[in-house]
């Protein structure tokens, strides 16, 4: 840890008080890792597929105090996965990221020989097997046949359409997508993706549960890539094109993304950022991009309409959202407070410099 870091942390904590958050709320946000606080539904969870995502989610559920049972492709692979889970939780505890009690709970995760055995008696079944429709169909049929009729069945699929996955589920009204992000223990966002026939009460129950364990769920539609991967892949494609066209190296693109517009993203989404920048400015930039790079930068009608109506963002009092003078002032000062705090955090925990551009010396 760098010198002065505890002072920096203290300042960050104090700024949280300024933001109206109790100092301990930083810990509250880590609550699924700190203690067994989750007491409502579900008490028992089956995790089907104990790989990168399944193990991380299992650790998170166990740390939050749920009874968790994992299974993988074979009993031997399940036993090995359990060993990895125990190691992983121990590593997190040693790094000070997880309490000793939570790590102990992760070590108590049970194993089951197959998806059916894991799902018997489970109130929530979390499927995290490889991204293969036939395999997921097979597993979802087995789980939903073995789980209690009121158990909720979810898939962590990154891209498969819900209305295709649900075809294999017994009791389709209790099925939906619950898309976590890697590493699941620490990434707060989870996409909740109902299928056409999912019961709205089931959606509400899942959203409440995720919030209770400290996650930030968003309910989204089942279009290709849902929302997160669609946006993330669009960003990745343009980043790749910049490198391919020789505009910048991979390292330079990473620097630009994380330090320019990416710097803002922990606090604001693209619509809030566009409102603060000025929608007329965005429309002009898009015209130049379209002239140089083609149709994929065509300005959507909704943006053209807003600019024509004079709704150019915070500066005019309305853009995608509406702002009174008072709200605009508050937004801008709270924005600046967060950016200043983030700069302090970056001083304490700078970006991880790992990897080199091709040909660069180690
Ligand atoms: N890796 C990511 O960043 C990420 C992020 C979000 C969502 N996802 C999605 O989560 C799911 C799992 O991805 P992952 O990255 O954890 O994959 P992974 O390959 O690390 O894990 C999948 C696990 O499923 C096991 N498995 C295979 N056949 C099985 C069977 N018949 N029964 C039980 N388990 C079986 C595998 O042995 C493996 O341990 C996929 O749908 C993927 O698209 C992945």
Summarize this structure briefly.
With 362 residues, this protein is of the alpha/beta class.
Shape: globular
**Estimated share of beta-strand residues:** 5-15%
N-to-C series of helices and strands: HHHEHEHHEHEHEHEEHEHHHHHH
- Domain module tally: 3
Molecules bound to protein: nicotinamide-adenine-dinucleotide
Could you say which structural class the secondary elements and strand pairing correspond to?
A: alpha/beta
**CATH arch. level architecture of the largest domain:** 3-Layer(aba) Sandwich
CATH topology of the largest domain: Rossmann fold
The tally of helices reads 16
CATH class of the largest domain: Alpha Beta
Walkthrough of the structure:
Helices cover 50% and strands 10% of the residues. The protein contains 16 helices and 8 strands. It has an 8-stranded mixed beta sheet with strand order 3-2-1-4-5-6-7-8, with helices on both faces. Strand 1, helix 4 and strand 2 form a beta-alpha-beta unit. 29% of the residues are buried. Bound molecules: nicotinamide-adenine-dinucleotide. The site of nicotinamide-adenine-dinucleotide has 25 residues, from helix 4 and helix 8.
List its traits.
alpha/beta, globular, 3 domains, binds nicotinamide-adenine-dinucleotide, eight-stranded mixed beta sheet, Rossmann fold, 362 residues, single chain, N-(1-d-carboxylethyl)-l-norvaline Dehydrogenase, domain 2
Q: Secondary-structure map with pairings?
A:
Elements: H1 5-18, H2 25-29, H3 31-34, E1 44-48, H4 52-63, E2 67-71, H5 75-94, H6 100-107, E3 110-111, H7 115-119, E4 124-127, H8 133-146, E5 152-155, H9 162-165, E6 175-179, E7 189-194, H10 200-212, E8 216-219, H11 228-244, H12 250-259, H13 270-277, H14 279-293, H15 301-308, H16 325-348
Parallel strand pairs: 1-2, 1-4, 2-3, 4-5, 5-6, 7-8
Antiparallel strand pairs: 6-7
Bound molecules: nicotinamide-adenine-dinucleotide.
